[in-house]
Amino acid sequence: MEGLILKKSTSLLFSGLLVSGMVLGATVTSTTVHADNTATTQATANVTNNVSYYDQNGKFILNKDEQGTKGSPITFAPDGFAIPTNNQAVFGDDAATVRVTVNEMISVKVNYVDQNNKLVNSEVVNGGVGNTAKLTDLPAGCNWVNDAEQTITLVDGKEYNVPVTKKVFNTVIFKTADNTEVGRTEVFSDKVGDAINLTSSQIPAGYKADTTSLTLQTDNNTQFITVTKDAEAATGTVTVNDQPAQLYTIYGNTITGRTLKANSSWKIFDTKVIKGKTYYKVATNEWVEASAVTVNNDTTNTVTPFTSTVTTGSVVSKLYNKEGKLLTGRALGPNTGWKTANKMILNGHTYYQVATDEWVDASTVTVAGETSTDNNVTPSTGVVTVGSNLALLYTKDGKAITDRALRPGTPWQTANKMTLNGETYYQVATNEWVKGSDLAK
């Protein structure tokens, strides 16, 4: 399917993001065998060690008291570093001093290449330099060539080409009787002629398919399925705000004497933008303005056809599935354009579909023909440097990200700037912002 190969930039911002460790303090049970061959158990007491951390070049990082059981691995690593996979230190006697060598965290690019030497997909893998990493994000419709290819050793600056065997795939486009495309998906199998049954999640929300059974055709072929609007298929729910909500026709005209009761909940069946305003369909030819209701925070979503193009900003844009779950290891490259098939509102947040069950957060892209309505955010391309202390990261709403921070003295490329509650923030990654007050002057 055109435009759905993920493109990655070799210049990534992830390399400086900090990864928090975890101290294991579990108590294990050991077995003692006596002369009479009877076995008893006793709890192994925790120990406290003074741990000194050094990087692979022997440079001191920090001292820290760690708790664990004697002989068990020390798993905590300072921010921005990782425990080596092949030389892991263990706890000694109580009050012992232990030296631990840790590896700096890096990001590497992995390309999956099929049997015809064509790029299928790419991903970013993060880990400690010199550590091994097992690849788990096999591209859809592919098989591993062999198990050995699933493990790589992380080398800073290296790009990996991993061979995979690609199955035969077809693109399925869903169209209504008037030839309007309302969605698309991809189907895979081992050979041409295999029978394929579409799942309910592959059919566009709010539609019924004339058939769900297909026969796989020549590789890269396109098949069409006719769908009809399912009037009974709700795509989400909304709750009316504290005042009654006026109802409108599909053209945005007021329906005299028709309102929704304050604080009442309603199923929604469609979404439209009428004269620049968003409306939700709650009954036959009855629509409520989005500003008069609140989209409920539930697991349902509102999906509507949306054929356009979105362009990412100067940093990678993360991808999510239809349930809003982050897809690990998959993202859209900076400053790249992507065709969309649908638009989704999930838990009050907007996403655009750019591949089969792959959605991009609307806040990280620009839609063709639209301009940003967020007057608080302005482009700000440049480099900022963290001050002498760790700099916490925040979401676009100013909420602290508890498990990520920027190391002191590290430089970061910025994409945008915003002012929130009198504080200036700079965007250094997708929905990750650093306060101006935490930067070097």
Largest sheet, in brief, is: 7 strands, mixed
Number of strands: 38
Number of helices: 0
Radius of gyration over alpha carbons? 27 Å
Q: Kindly name the structural category.
A: mainly beta
Averaging pLDDT over every residue, what do you get? 78
The outline comes out as globular
Which range best describes the helical content: under 10%, 10-25%, 25-40%, 40-55%, 55-70% or over 70%? under 10%
Count of discrete domains: 5
Spatial gap, N to C terminus: 48 Å
The low-pLDDT segments are: 1-43, 371-375
What portion of residues belong to β-strands?
over 45%
Structure summarized in a few sentences:
The protein is built from no helices and 38 strands. The protein has strands at 29-33, 39-43, 46-55, 60-69, 81-82, 97-113, 119-128, 132-134, 142-144, 151-153, 159-166, 168-175, 181-189, 195-197, 207-209, 213-215, 221-229, 236-240, 245-248, 254-260, 265-268, 270-274, 277-283, 286-289, 293-295, 301-312, 317-320, 326-332, 337-346, 349-355, 358-361, 365-367, 377-385, 391-394, 400-406, 411-420, 423-429, 432-435.
How would you characterize this protein structure?
- The protein has 441 residues and is mostly beta strands.
- It contains no helices and 38 strands.
- It folds into 5 domains: 18-103, no CATH class; 168-229, Immunoglobulin-like, CATH 2.60.40; 236-299, SH3 type barrels; 302-367; 377-438.
- Strand 22 (270-274) and strand 23 form a beta hairpin.
